[in-house]
Write a structure and sequence with these properties.
7-stranded mixed beta sheet; 3-stranded antiparallel beta sheet; single chain; binds S-adenosylmethionine; about 325 residues; alpha/beta; Rossmann fold; 2 domains; Arc Repressor Mutant, subunit A
């Protein structure tokens, strides 16, 4: 049996449809599309996001381009072709199909997927809201100065890829807990977070309960550095100031080395400290995921190779990396 071959290139008359399971997360500077099934993620600029919103299974490519032309300063001829090429790229990545079908996409285009998609959507919404609540409810002076939230949507692809090779997840500096909660949803067991700041830790536990994931995650309050931690000689005092060195050390209590997938979202200066910690303590075959707020996530294997994760195109490379290490 052959899967039905769907065309991947459109004409102005083609009517594109969104993949119903696709999730979209809007950020200030861009939007991120996620496919829960394939783990593809795709960053959209504001025009791309506007095109995505206009794809409703009813409008043709030409009709979508016409709306874009009316709402921007785009040159019509150019816009027609740009919109068409953009939609073709979405089709290549599996986010868009061609052919009129009114039933497949509901109002917001995301609700009709299987339970995992619904759970992922709920988690993403809850984490987004919690980050906003933290901003509003916690006065500036009380806010953790080292806390800059990342969003689980950013880590989704790399964490799902790493899940094929690892199963025990720990997040160093788990903040509001969104990534650790995502790990639980992806089937990592245990899914552990360690956070130094008491308010963030309290909120991560509350979020876990709100999502019904409290049995599947453990959030430790404390400092994830080992009791006898010595920073590498090339790390200076300014860098260490971006790091918590005080507080109760819970590295042993949380049994960080027992986890084979480590995640940290450090400041650029402190990436070296996290890598050093991983290098000194992780078991063979463990993966370190790092993300620094922009661009793709990085995946490092204990032996030292690093991969920039660009979505499923990187999966074979990751598999080779893991195989080389175990061989
Ligand atoms: C840049 S924030 C990222 C938070 C979270 N990983 C996320 O992506 O939303 C870094 C977090 O690490 C925590 N942190 C920094 N040094 C730590 C340490 N030594 N032990 C435990 N937590 C630490 C900070 O309190 C902060 O919440």
């Amino acid at each position: 049996m052959h899967a039905e071959r769907l065309p991947l290139t459109s004409t102005p008359e083609t009517v594109p449809r969104r993949k119903p399971e696709a999730l979209v997360q809007h950020f200030e500077e861009e939007s991120l599309l996620m496919d829960p099934a394939s783990a593809y993620t795709c960053a959209l600029n504001p025009t791309g996001a506007a095109v995505w919103e206009l794809i409703d299974g009813q409008r043709s490519v030409a009709e979508i381009a016409a709306v874009i032309v009316r709402s921007t300063t785009a040159v019509p001829m150019r816009a027609n072709e740009d919109v068409r090429l953009f939609i073709d790229e979405m089709a290549r990545l599996g986010f868009v199909r061609f052919g009129r079908d009114g039933n497949e996409v509901d109002d917001d285009g995301v609700d009709s997927g299987p339970p995992f998609t619904a759970a992922l959507k709920r988690l993403i919404e809850a984490v987004t809201e919690e980050a906003q609540r933290y901003e509003h409810e916690v006065a500036d002076a009380q806010r953790c100065d080292l806390f800059v939230p990342s969003h689980p949507a950013r880590l989704f692809g790399a964490m799902q890829a790493a899940r094929r090779h690892t199963s025990r997840f720990v997040e160093l500096g788990s903040g509001l807990g969104g990534n650790t909660l995502l790990a639980a949803l992806l089937g990592y067991e245990p899914a552990t977070g360690v956070e130094h700041d008491a308010e963030l830790h309290r909120r991560s536990q509350r979020l876990a309960a709100e999502l019904g994931l409290e049995e599947r995650v453990t959030f430790h309050l404390g400092n994830y550095l080992p009791a006898d931690y010595e920073p590498p000689a090339d790390v200076d005092a300014t860098t260490l100031a971006r790091y918590r060195l005080d507080g109760e050390r819970v590295f042993e209590q949380a049994d960080v080395p027992a986890h084979d997938c480590w995640l940290a979202t450090p400041f650029p200066q402190t990436q070296r400290v996290v890598e050093h910690l991983f290098h000194e303590n992780a078991r063979p075959g463990s993966l370190l995921l790092t993300y620094q707020g922009l661009g793709p996530a990085k995946i490092r294997i204990a032996a030292g190779d690093t991969l920039t994760y660009y979505g499923p195109e990187s999966d074979a490379q990751l598999a080779r990396m893991v195989e080389n290490e175990s061989g």
